[in-house]
Amino acid sequence: MPAAAPASDLRTDKATRESVFALVGNPNCGKSTIFNALTGLKQKVANYPGVTVEKREGTCFNQHGKRIHLIDLPGTYSLNVHSPDEAVVRDVLLGRRADTPRPDAVILITDASNIERNLYLATQVLELGLPTLLVLNMTDVAEAKQWRIDVGKLSQRLGVSVVPMQATFGKGLVELKAAMSKLGSADFQPVSSNVHPARPSASGNELEARSPSQAGSLCHLPIPPDILGGLQQTRADLIRSGTVSENVSLLEPLYLISDHDPAHYGIEDSLVNRLAAAHDVLEKKLPGWEDRLAASRYEAVEKLLLDVLRRPERDESTTTDRLDSVFLHPIWGGVCMAAIMLAVFYMIFSVAEGPMDWIDKITGSTSGWIEANMPAGDLRDLIANGIIVGVGGIVKFLPQILMLFFLIGMMEDTGYMARVAFIMDKFMGRVGLNGRSFVPFFSSYACAVPGIMATRTIASPKDRLITILIAPLASCSARLPVYTLMIAAMFPANGVSTLQKASLMLSMYVLGTGGAFAFAWLFNSTMAKGRSSLMVLEMPTYKRPSLRHVARYMLERAKMFLVRAGTVILGLSILLWAAKTYPKPGTPEPADTAAKVAYRSSQLSHSFAGRAGHFIEPVIKPLGFDWKIGIGLISSFAAREFFVSTMGIIYAVEDDGDDNVEPLKQKLAEDRWPDGRPIFTPLACLSLMVFYVFAMQCLSTVAVVKRETNGWKWPIFQIAYMTAAAWLASFVVYQGGRLLGF
Amino acid sequence: MAAALLLSDLAAGAGGVISDILLGHDEHITRLRELGLVPGTRIRVVRRAPLGDPIEVSVRGSRLAMRRSEARHIHITTE
């Protein structure tokens, strides 16, 4: 995309400037596949400013080699806005977003095997008055259903070129580019001029949007004559202010005023009030007009399809039906899903572990190398312990993110994801979420970072937010080292069976899950904002996944994480490092190993983090924690597993590089409060485990939540509620346990 | 004989014609209509989810999943 040129240049240079095409279509119509096929690697993904809606843009060349700027708009069923995604589609098409150029033409993509519903959106898009090209995708699926679509007749009836495609197999791409050449060229008579502004019919009080080349109209709504003039005035005002193109039908202003979104991007303030007034009049004079309009559009589509589509009397049993009879079978459906989910979990939990360990080792040895080869000083410490550890902490998430998004991409691409949502909806619905929340929440048991990134598949903003808020309560893999250390510290060397330890571990998972559902329920019933969403989910046909598509999706997520979340994580890591390092003691670090260990322990307890540990002791004492645990809590805010290494430093245990907790366990067992009571009683250990079940303690999650919710409001709320819950739960455990005599 | 029923009452495999949608939120009704559930449209229950809810319906050649609590507001007639 060229750098933004002054507006006047855009107008005068219309012939030479890059034309802008927008891709519009229903969800699951194969739009992204076509966008990828057209743009190849020449695309970029960002966010529309102010909303978490993905902005996909790219460049492609038409059959004549002319550059075209392509905008892939989010999938939508209607231009009547119900969600932020749909608002973006409408606003971009109307040129109402300052950050996106107004499209010169629209490529409208439809699923041939679902043509009736797809043409509904077509009737709306055609009324915008922009030059439009209709792609009839997935003709193979329609053929499998023995549907015959008369492409010529469809084209003639709608007054637009129609290109049949099988995008998954790359068929029809050349024809599409050729059609784009025609659509973009100067001598092309834009379709828009064929779509008349709605005009009064014979009776004088009915409106139709029709194209003169055919008999049927695209929709039909009787408008009382006394408000007709007002609407026409509104249309004229919108055209005059440049809000809509001159070819727009009268019905499009109706859609503008039916806007459920109060933002009204790009509409003059004076017009907003007029539109609202016009809306009220319309509601009063013509109750239920939106529904009647929808019905009239379907009526028109039905009439059109009578001529265009030949289909068998009874629906043939399709591959999708046969697959669903297994995947959605009352018994086998559940079994298959459990098996697939376990496989997913195994892959992100175990398979990703190998590369994560390598990254840890590389990080460790790089720090070690720098410590050995750089002159001692603050700079060396900053690089070795601040930057490298921070970067390592970011990169460490990559294996899990790549793995999870590869699997989610496969599930989305094949159509299985909708089935998971279908099966799990009732379960998730109990706490006010929907089936789409299941996979992101489930993934969070491996790691909340990819889990939260996966919430983008949840359409309802409220459900998505709640899922983000509760995802870190799923006991992720980073809690395991803490649980392991505490369970080891809790029990004497022998005398407790592995089974008992395992059930204690399991109960932490149960506690976290219970907490997550309880908070989901609480948030769902208290959050006034965000009305309850309608849970209507499309069940797409199964498709063969495109590896290229999935790989692209996976890499995109990984890049997004590195760039957006990575910078925040790095910054916070360095901040935390500084808190643990400064102020420095006056004496230099001794060379002798034993003395060095003791030196580091005393250094940490005198650092800012150490002082903070002392400072918060009164707050955490009722939980059974002393200031040393306080330091552990503070430094493990970077990542939970840091708790173990921090305790190692405080208790001056030499780090032998192994995961052996025995030496540290010994030291913990020996530690005493000033009055001589042991600190790490079984009850205190349990209290600490419970604390970690609920506490946020992960700045990578904070960074990702900040990115996914577009600001600091929700991550701060999340830290606050989770820390409060952690404190309360630990308090109940510790004080309750003491009352019971433990 | 025509019988008036609710979509949520239909067994898997049964179908009928939508006569009316009476849902609490106007906005939800509009969305259902936009998805093709306008009065006069044929609709068929394909299956129930393994846990009994939601249901999958076939309407205008597309397959949609909806909760029974929503299907309860869709009135249909069967022949």
> Can you give the helix content of chain A as a percent range?
55-70%
The CATH architecture classification of the domain at 7-194 in chain A is 3-Layer(aba) Sandwich
The profile of the biggest β sheet of chain A is: 7 strands, mixed
Fourth CATH level, the homologous superfamily of the domain at 7-194 in chain A: P-loop containing nucleotide triphosphate hydrolases
Total helical segments of chain A: 31
Report on the structure:
The complex is a heterodimer of chains A (about 750) and B (about 80). Chain A has about 750 residues and is of the alpha/beta class. Among the domains of chain A are: about 5-195, Rossmann fold; about 200-310, no CATH class; about 565-740, no CATH class. In chain A, about 55% of the residues lie in helices and about 10% in strands. Chain A is built from 31 helices and 13 strands. In chain A, the strands form 3 sheets. In chain A, strands 2-3-4-1-5-6-8 form a 7-stranded mixed beta sheet, sandwiched between helices. Chain A has a 3-stranded antiparallel beta sheet with strand order 9-10-11. Chain A has a two-stranded antiparallel ribbon with strand order 7-12. In chain A, a hairpin with a 5-residue loop joins β9 and β10. The longest helix of chain A is centred in the last third of the chain and has 35 residues, at about 545-580. Residues about 1-15, about 185-205 and about 210-215 of chain A have low confidence and may be disordered. By secondary structure, chain B is of the alpha+beta class. Chain B has one domain (about 5-80): Ferrous iron transport protein A (FeoA) (SH3 type barrels). In chain B, about 15% of the residues lie in helices and about 40% in strands. Chain B is built from 2 helices and 6 strands, in the order ββαβββαβ. Chain B has helices at about 25-35, 70; strands at about 5, 15-20, 40-50, 55-60, 60-65, 75-79. In chain B, a hairpin with a 2-residue loop joins β4 (about 55-60) and β5 (about 60-65). The longest helix of chain B is centred in the middle third of the chain and has 9 residues, at about 25-35. Chain B is globular. The model of chain B has no long low-confidence stretch (mean pLDDT about 90). Classes of the chains: A alpha/beta (about 750), B alpha+beta (about 80). The interface of A and B includes residues 114, 422 and 531 of A. β13 of chain A pairs antiparallel with β5 of chain B.
